[in-house]
Structure formats: structure tokens, C-alpha cells
What does this fold into?
Amino acid sequence: MSVDVRRSQPLADEVKDELSVSVLKGRLPSAAIVSCFLLGVVALLAAAAPAIAPYDIADQSLLTRLRAPVFAGGTTEYLLGTDHLGRDVLSRLLLATRTTLLIAGAGVLVGVVTGTISGLISGTLGGWIDQSFMAVVDAQAAVPVTLVALTAVALAGTHPLVLVLIVGLSDYYKYARVVRGQVLALKGRSFIEAARCSGASPWRIALRHILPNTFSPVIVLASLSFAEIVVLESSLSFLGVGVQPPNVSLGSLLGEARNYLITTSWLAIFPCVVIVAITLAASMIGDWLRDSLDPRSRA
It folds into this structure.
């Protein structure tokens, strides 16, 4: 009894793909669901922070300074205790999370828009324009991001809008490289050649046929970059060049708590836990998106 190898091979490949997808659905979505839930809860609490915060973040009372949280012997009046000026830690943590998420989200949006436009123009036009764009990208990638951000803040100030532009543009080169690579890879595909032969202009081809095919890698990169921007903003605020009083962010909470690590360690533990939760959830969602949207990861 003979077996047609040519007919059995596609069947074997199909079974292999189904097994790979089943493994993907059996493992990754569980972690992705937990990550989405965790990030969603944090975002919901941050969004509702002005309404649910028990105290104003600027209210001070030196008579109640450095109160312990409720699980460490404190009272229910201050669930997470108070800081060195008697301000409610829970209220400040909620507002700080809101500020950090807003800056990180806006920064990712700035990076996606500027990087995608740069990569699309560079890959479409080619020639000296492509070389100029890539020279700028390579120069920025060669310099540490924190050093660039510190220099930019020193020159432009610490306004929240300036901070958003700084953290957003610090990652734009990653999107530019990815989009440019996608443009160069797609320019020789048959559907692009068909569109070109039908009389479509280069920019119509770029916007209608190439740009939609760059969305998947850009989305994955944005989810992974979100965690990096959260850490970058927290680092800048921790160093005192990020969010300035009376506003508060997770990094500024850490900066205020560093002088009290021995006596009142919870002042630093709470923002650290939130930063780790946000970055871990965003990274796991990014990994899941990468494995789900990249067909090669299922082979």
C-alpha cells in the first residue's frame, strides 16, 4: 500500500500548526489574561484616583507623620500609613500611578507616531534620505537613553508635556527601524508589484498597502516599550528631574522615601510593587502578542 507523500506532507504541517496553536492557547493566554486583568485593575484604580482617594495629596499633618500601614499595626484612618510630612500614602500612590500611566501612555503614542512616520518615509524614499534618517537613528541608539533624557530635561525643563516628548522620542528609533525593515521587506512582494503596475503612486502604495502590514510588529513593540517608559519616567522622577511637586509620580514617591528606607521601608515598597506589577504585566502582554501575531513563532 503506497502513501502519497505530497498529499500527506501538507496534512502533517497542518497538524503541526494546530498542535502549536493549541500549546500557545494552553499556556500563554492564561498568563496574558492574568496580566491584562492586573494591568486593567491598576489602570482603573488610577483613572478613578481623584474620586476614590481618601485625602488630598497635599494635605499635611506633622502630628500624624510616619504612621504605619494598617497591616503593620496602624489604624484604618490611613490604610497604607503616612509619609514624613503626614500625607496619606494611599492617596498619593493612586495619583502617582495615574500620572505615571498617563506619561507612559502618551510617550508610547509619541514614539509610535514619530517612529512609524520616520520609518515609512525612510524606507519608501530610500537614497540619501534613507541614509540620513538611519544615521540619526544609529546616533541616538548609540547614546544611553537616560543620559539623553537627563540632558533634554536640563535644557527644556520639567513640564509634563516636555517629559512626555522626551520619554516618547527616546524610543522612536526602535519603531523607525522596525517600520523601515518592514517597508524594505514588502517592497518586492508580488501584491506591491501589482499595485505599482496598476498605476498606484509610491505614497498610495506606502499608505494603503505597506503601512497596514506594519501594525502587528509596531503593536508588539509598543506593548514592550510601555514597560521601559514606565521605568524611564520613574528613574527621572527618582533623580528629581521628572515630575515636580505638587504633582507626584511613582518615581518621585521613591525619591522621597529613600531617606527613610531603614525606619519606614513601606514608603518605598508600595511604589516599587506597583512599578513591578505594571512592567511585568505589560511585558507579558507584549510577549503574548509577539507569539500570537508572528506566524513563525508557531512553527
Residues 51-298 form a domain with the MetI-like fold fold (CATH 1.10.3720.10). Confidence is low (pLDDT under 50) at residues 1-28. The chain has one domain: 51-298.
